[in-house]
Specification:
binds guanosine-5'-triphosphate, OB fold (Dihydrolipoamide Acetyltransferase, E2P), binds magnesium ion, 5-stranded mixed β-barrel, 342 residues, globular
């Protein structure tokens, strides 16, 4: 009998995937096809100490089923990738999506306006996570202006896959669907850009709630409030829908390493007079600055590099207890700057 109960317990443990998680509870799609609400056994998963949220959408876990649709999470499997950002409120790294193969940055031509600097920040997170990036420009039914077209060309030139979509008339949805086949994607972007609207076309069964864009502030109303994994009925595509970011602080990169996160800079670094130690800010014989001058690197990307570098340096100085962080705050170059609030 004893043996029977042990093997029963073994059988009853099963694998699952976290669909979404909040307050240490997670909805888990289990291998028997059932979705269970699971608490974490012992309240804490040791490997996650120091992270802002304990479990993320897409996490692979082992669970012990309990009565009804309940269960206990006993183990978190190692993440193949984690896509996250620094949460300023929680002052810790926040994993938004786990085990994703590709990131999709959804932007819009209007309402909210296209913000290349936001895309640049997301592109750094994608490089940090080691996953490719698709840049989606949505709401093309509202018309695309020349400046936006030019920037899209720049992103294609850098090597990102650029897709123009309209959730209103269906433009580009097939192209996006083709790029996401057999993959798990995380959709990120400003509130109101149309992430959930596009997901509803890609995965009609997802039936995501879609919100309005406030006329007064020309930005979304944070309709999606929780990152959630949505899986196509036939299992051919999985997407993690996320709430719109208001701020995107970059952390965890040493200022001198930042150039490695701009693919179009990387090839030039060895041509800089000071090589890998070049800051690309003031040095004579800097190949990156020359490329900006000649137009081979877009000045906007360079501007993003400078701002983020200053931000990272501000943090580094601040950590060393100097006044620079306060100066950076006053000059508006650091992360608390409202310009980063969208
Ligand atoms: N004209 C136009 N409107 C769109 C398009 N896509 C979405 N919208 C509208 O934009 C608004 C915001 O769409 P959502 O899909 O909720 O945006 P979201 O990115 O998911 O926003 P959050 O969940 O708040 O982060 C809604 O009113 C949509 O109807 C589009 O292609 N064209
Ligand atoms: Mg949404």
């Amino acid at each position: 009998m004893m043996h029977g109960s042990i093997s029963e317990r073994k059988i009853s443990c099963m694998n699952g995937t976290v669909l979404f998680s909040s307050n240490n509870l997670a909805r888990v799609l289990c291998e028997d096809g059932m979705v269970r609400t699971c608490a974490i056994k012992g309240k804490r998963i040791r490997t996650l100490t120091g992270l802002y949220n304990s479990l993320a959408a897409g996490d692979k876990v082992a669970i012990q089923p309990a009565e009804g649709d309940r269960g206990l999470i006993t183990e978190l499997m190692p993440r193949s990738t984690s896509f996250g950002r620094f949460n300023e409120k929680g002052k810790a790294e926040q994993v938004i999506a786990a085990n994703v193969d590709i990131a999709v940055c959804v932007t819009s031509v209007q309402a909210p306006p296209f913000r290349p600097r936001f895309v640049d920040r997301v592109s750094i997170l994608a490089v940090q996570s080691g996953i490719p990036l698709i840049v989606v420009l949505n709401k093309t039914d509202l018309g695309i202006d020349d400046a936006t077209e030019q920037r899209l060309g720049m992103y294609a030139h850098v090597g990102f896959h650029v897709v123009r979509t309209s959730a209103a008339n269906g433009e580009g949805i097939e192209e996006l669907a083709a790029a996401l086949q057999h993959r798990t994607a995380v959709f990120v972007g400003q509130s109101g850009a149309g992430k959930s609207s596009i997901i509803n076309l890609l995965l009609p069964e997802a039936n995501r709630r879609v919100g309005e864009v406030s006329e007064k502030f020309n930005r979304g109303r944070h309709t999606t409030t929780l990152a959630e994994l949505l899986i196509a009925n036939q299992g051919t595509m999985a997407i993690i829908d996320t709430p719109g970011f208001r701020r995107l602080a970059i952390r965890g990169i040493e200022p001198q390493d930042l150039h490695g996160y701009f693919p179009e800079f990387e090839a030039l670094i060895s041509h800089c007079a000071f090589g890998a130690s070049c800051t690309h800010t003031i040095e004579e014989g800097c190949a990156v600055r020359d490329a900006v001058e000649s137009g081979a690197i877009h000045h906007d990307r360079y501007e993003s590099y400078l701002r983020i570098r200053e931000e990272l340096e501000g943090i580094a100085h601040w950590m060393r207890g100097t006044q620079s962080y306060q100066r950076a705050r006053r000059s508006g170059s650091c992360i608390e700057d409202d310009a980063w609030e969208w």
